[in-house]
From TrEMBL:
Listed Pfam families: Isochorismatase (PF00857)
Protein name: Isochorismatase-like domain-containing protein
Record SUPFAM superfamilies: Isochorismatase-like hydrolases (SSF52499)
Family matches, as InterPro entries: Isochorismatase-like_dom (IPR000868), Isochorismatase-like_hydrls (IPR050272), Isochorismatase-like_sf (IPR036380)
Biological source species: Streptomonospora halophila
């Protein structure tokens, strides 16, 4: 029998469900909006988030934003250089930084946390998760081979038990998505489908 997940020690990390990543008009829309749409991941992840909340698990949304002083932004990759050059589109109050409407209705215990790194766990989020009593993280988001993988590895190194939710993540390239999940199945506590997670919470 698969080990149970304790809702009181678990949190969903919902990574980069924002207009700039998901929608055609967003900064990365040309690369990601069509793969996201065709995969159906928004609908699956929205249902999963709702079911996790109903089971007593908070959903913590991370947004990539760039404040006026640039915060912790470091232009040490092509990705970071690109968003640094277009930082007006990533201001916390910019339309592209908003959580997509399908996920904008937050639960009482949900959080929205901004940072300027690829890992959703950069900055003060690990401390906030500790305050919630969470030692197990369920990852949803876009893209599998970027923020999801970076966050999953980061969380594992910090000592969290991390499960990427395999049918609630996607990437621009299906092959990269599959390869990333295969790597994370070894580098984390293992990938689970949304239904497998809910069964373990049940």
């Amino acid at each position: 029998m698969a080990p149970r997940l304790a809702a009181e020690r678990t949190a969903v990390l919902a990574l980069h469900w924002q207009v700039n990543v998901i929608r055609p008009e967003g900064f990365f829309g040309g690369m990601l909006s069509e793969p996201v749409r065709s995969s159906g991941v928004v609908e699956r992840a929205s249902r999963f988030h709702a079911a996790a909340r109903a089971a007593g698990v908070p959903v913590v949304f991370t947004r990539f934003t760039v404040p006026e002083d640039e915060g912790d932004l470091v232009r040490n990759t092509a990705f970071m250089a690109a968003v640094g050059d277009a930082q007006e589109s990533f201001r916390p109050d910019a339309p592209g930084s908003a959580i997509i409407k399908e996920m904008a209705d937050l639960g009482e215990r949900d959080l929205v946390v901004d940072n300027q790194r690829l890992s959703g766990l950069s900055g003060g989020l690990p401390l906030r998760l500790a305050e919630l009593g969470a030692d197990t993280l369920l990852l949803t988001g876009v893209a599998t081979d970027l923020t999801v993988e970076q966050t999953a590895r980061h969380g594992t190194e910090l000592g969290f038990t991390v499960h990427p939710v395999s049918d609630c993540v996607t990437a621009a390239d299906p092959a990269a998505h599959r390869a990333s999940l295969a790597a994370l199945d070894l580098a984390t506590a293992g990938c689970l489908t949304a239904q497998e997670v809910l069964d373990r919470l049940g």
